[in-house]
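Revision sheet: structure tokens.
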Amino acid sequence: MFKILSGIFNECRRYVLNGLSKKRAEKNKKGDITKYFDKYIENLIILRLKEKCKLKAEILSEELHEKILINKKFLGKNNYIIIDPVDGSDNYVAGIPFVCMGISIFDNKKIPIYSFVGNYYSGDWIYADKKKVVFSSKNFTQKQKDKKILIYTFSKLKLSNIKHLEKLINSFDIIRSLGATIGEMILVVKGSAAAFVDIRGKLTLENFAPFFLISKHLGLKLTDAKGQDIVLNNFSMTQRHNIIFAKCKVLKKIIKD
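Predicted:
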């Protein structure tokens, strides 16, 4: 599966780096505007999955209005492939080189079995299956002192949250919001940031699905805003989430603060 997913990423990356039209195409199921490049990359990923993936599976994406079933004749229950073809669409439109892709595959019991995430511009990627996690370079997860960088996105805070926010922000040296959830979570895996927190209530499953498996391998925590593990009861592509992604000790600090 690594060869398939990495091949898809490399092919998509060539198109993204060469430049694709940023014209409006349609609205997705969440009501957001889908651009031509979103649909182009999504269609390319789906085409390659149909050609190469040897699993009976439903493909889900925020840009798809209906599920796509591949390998219908295969025996057994459906697996689920969740794709985020262009995470950071606004960055791409604005010419900001921080745009990513994510593909995650779950079995019929909603257990993650394969994950792949990659940053189109930097070339960083992570692959995981049930046995291992593989990085784009040997230095990807080199041990570093915990950097006091917090990737934090919030909006419409209540007055009661202001003191909490002030205390939390003051406990980190640098605060950033970079506009592509997958890329921001990759930075936490790399050790370039201590934690990723998004409490806008806007993230949907495709934005973070690959990190269920990746976090399991690396001892990272993927939780809601209260520090509770996120449990997948379904594969809704419209349900909104708050997310914390961090090492256990950093998570405790965020929840405490």
